[in-house]
Amino acid sequence: xxxxxxxxxxxxxxxxxxxxxxxxxxxxxxxxxxxxxxxxxxxxxxxxxxxxxxxxxxxxxxxxxxxxxxxxxxxxxxxxxxxxxxxxxxxxxxxxxxxxxxxxxxxxxxxxxxxxxxxxxxxxxxxxxxxxxxxxxxxxxxxxxxxxxxxxxxxxxxxxxxxxxxxxxxxxxxxxxxxxxxxxxxxxxxxxxxxxxxxxxxxxxxxxxxxxxxxxxxxxxxxxxxxxxxxxxxxxxxxxxxxxxxxxxxxxxxxxxxxxxxxxxxxxxxxxxxxxxxxxxxxxxxxxxxxxxxxxxxxxxxxxxxxxxxxxxxxxxxxxxxxxxxxxxxxxxxxxxxxxxxxxxxxxxxxxxxxxxxxxxxxxxxxxxxxxxxxxxxxxxxxxx
Length: 385
Fold this sequence. Notes:
Blueprint: H1 2-28, H2 37-49, E1 51-57, E2 62-65, H3 67-72, E3 81-83, H4 84-89, H5 93-109, E4 112-120, E5 126-137, E6 143-152, H6 154-176, E7 180-185, E8 190-193, H7 195-201, H8 205-208, H9 220-236, E9 240-248, E10 254-264, E11 273-280, H10 282-332, H11 337-367, H12 374-381
Antiparallel strand pairs: 1-2, 1-6, 2-3, 4-5, 5-6, 7-8, 7-11, 9-10, 10-11
Helix pairs in contact: 10-11
């Protein structure tokens, strides 16, 4: 009997120990997570799109994160259970109040909204996240939690910032080029104009926004011609070179431009636009006009100089002919002193006249330009001998 009791006690102790070991093993045992095909695809979608999701239960304060959300926030993908405070703690300090205010508004209004903010990872790096948040409401209209979707937009923001910097650099370059550069849509709306273009019309870059070609061109013929040029470029999809285009600036002064128009599609635009590069050739045009004017003046003066030379040669030949004739008469005739005095006086007048012509001709030659055409008239008016 004693042996039986001892055996029974040992058996019961064994069962007790076995129960303890089983309970301990059950506590440590984590059953494998069996995911349905839909859940597997959802996980793939989140990973490819870099979009994670999370759910917050107001009653428990527990926030459940998807694996991709954990990855975005830089924590272990297996640590999917968190408090909402954990989520807020990882928001960049400068954006934290903004996110808190939006979440409070969503909870109070039982609505949904989105917010872009930065998150601070444990390694000190910063990511840009766009969070779409929706309030969960039960059948009784009570707010029971929040459902959120977090998208990592770091690369998108970086690309956008890089593009913005690139555009700013291009604007800086365009402003350094001493040409008028502009971009105009097919309907005449302006997209861009550099400082020379803006100065021509007397406006700022801000004032250019929303402006159309017709807002600047007040002369109907100019507007028709510019529209014709744009239509030709867009239709042919080829560049157009305009050798000269006359236009008044905002001050009403005449300006002349040499223009190259190129068809191209601007960034962010779906339709083809006009890139215009115009060189101000006003000074060149004025120089050409002055050269033409000088040429015409020189031509006219040469013509007058020829006429002047003809008149002078005629007037010089007149006195010489008189002197030669008188000398011949004196040489052949036996003249009295009275007659001789008369001939000498005629010779003296002719010589005096010839001397005056030569003197005035010398003044003209020294001046280099015929400046007083009245001389011709005076020579013509001199009495003959």
